Amino acid sequence: MEYMKLDLLRMSRAVPLIHSGLTFREIEVLKWSAEGKTAAEVAMILNVKLRTVNFHIGSAIRKMGVTNKTSAVVQAALHGVFQP
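^ that's the sequence the OP posted. Answer follows.
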């Protein structure tokens, strides 16, 4: 339970999503990841190579100032990126 609090604290210090400059494709990849899709599944859905999906995930992680894909998805969800 403590590790979850620590993750939330770290995410609260991340670059605000509004200022992160995420591209449409980065957001799209994070959205599919939030739906539980693996990177390979996202690649098939978007008709791109796995390497491309991993590139977009890595780019989003760097822009958002988080350390992994899960943190990026949570941060995006907290900021309403997946809202219609």
